[in-house]
Write a structure and sequence with these properties.
By secondary structure, the chain is of the alpha/beta class. The chain has 2 domains: 214 residues, Rossmann fold; 64 residues, Alpha-Beta Plaits (2-Layer Sandwich). It is built from 11 helices and 14 strands. The strands form 3 sheets. The chain has a 6-stranded mixed beta sheet with strand order 6-7-8-3-9-10, with helices on both faces. A 4-stranded antiparallel beta sheet has the order 2-1-4-5, covered by helices on one side. A 4-stranded antiparallel beta sheet has the order 12-13-11-14, with helices on one face. It is globular and about 75 Å long.
Length: 339
């Protein structure tokens, strides 16, 4: 069934696949990126992320399946797609003899942007990414982080409706990472730019993205909001109860009727009690039980799995499922041969 993006800022794929002889780099990928999303695209090296991005940007033809970007078919309308998107690949090529402004003006001309407008955009973008004072320095003298900033400026020169970013903060110091993240949020909130973000920096994805897809071995593992992914990973939604430490407290904690983990903090003055299987009791009931045991509560808060924990749990669960399926299939084939 063909499903189309609801307006011209969306992305969707339906059973999108790419094969190289006997190797399937992307296998029946179906995702839907809504207009205005900051969409995280996660997976280990070799999972098919870059191949997917290249297909969505019209740089690589799929073997099968269907996809649209901004309402345009990625095969039939690839040239049009390239004119309205921005792509920052993990490794960008630069004309090292050029200065940054000359470099941006060159790309503005490729997009057939009016010379006066192109010059204004170039200056504004160099200011935005913190390279205005270095705009005439040859790019060959730029650090990796400076080149990454320039690459983002080039990606924005045509004022794209959709951004495809592959490791956009790679090589940047913490201040540079913060600046790029701020720029992306401004583009998304002020101009409604849809952002498709592939990154190994899970903290960055967690803070920026409202929806996420995880892929492995070319297949979709899971997709949804971070909360939805936590539920898929079996997050208990438990509690962390921080109590004052004492020999008696340690004994009483061990007698509580929960499956718990304890960690000492603040020079052993406090104990974090992680209650991971809260089902039948409310937070108030758990608090009452601690108090009746004579435990002094310092703090109580909800416990949520980090995106990193969710990511590894879902990847491992899917890997085990696939291995089990392949083993069953192999055993069945062997039985058939012996019949």
């Amino acid at each position: 069934m063909k499903v189309s993006s609801t307006n011209n800022n969306g992305i969707f794929t339906s059973n999108l696949s790419k094969s190289y002889r006997n190797f399937r780099a992307v296998n029946s990928l179906t995702i839907d990126v809504r207009p205005g999303d900051i969409f995280g695209f996660l997976g280990p090296n070799g999972a098919g992320k870059t191949t997917t991005i290249r297909m969505l940007c019209g740089l690589l033809s799929p073997t099968s399946g269907h996809s649209e970007v901004a309402g345009l078919d990625i095969v039939k309308d690839s040239l049009k797609i390239r004119s309205i998107i921005g792509l920052l690949p993990e490794s960008s090529g630069f004309y090292n003899w050029m200065g940054a402004e000359e470099y941006l003006l060159y790309f503005a001309a490729l997009y057939k942007i009016d010379a006066h407008l192109g010059k204004k955009r170039a200056k504004d973008l160099l200011e935005r990414v913190g390279l205005a004072s270095k705009s005439f320095v040859p790019i060959s003298y730029y650090s990796r982080g400076m080149k990454q900033r320039l690459g983002l400026a080039r990606t924005l020169i045509n004022e794209p409706k959709i951004l495809f970013l592959d490791e956009p903060t790679l090589g940047l110091d913490p201040k540079g990472q913060q600046d790029i993240q701020k720029t992306l949020l401004e583009l998304n909130r002020e101009k409604g730019v849809t952002i498709f973000l592939s990154s190994h920096a899970l903290s960055e994805v967690s803070s920026l993205c409202n929806r996420i897809a995880i892929v492995n071995r070319g297949r979709l593992v899971a997709k949804g909001s971070i909360e939805e992914l936590r539920k898929l990973a079996g997050n208990s939604g438990g509690l962390v109860v921080r109590i004052l430490n004492s020999p008696r407290a340690q004994k009483e904690v061990s007698n509580l009727p929960y499956r718990i983990q304890t960690n000492t903090t603040d020079n052993n003055k406090l104990i974090d009690v992680n209650i991971s299987d809260v089902v039948s009791e409310s937070a108030n009931e758990i608090t009452d039980r601690f108090e009746k045991a004579g435990l002094q509560i310092y703090e109580i808060r909800r416990m949520g799995m980090s995106l990193q924990d969710v990511y590894f749990k879902l990847i491992e669960t899917r890997r085990q499922d696939q291995d089990a399926h392949e083993k069953t299939k192999s055993e069945e084939e062997q039985r058939q041969r012996h019949v």
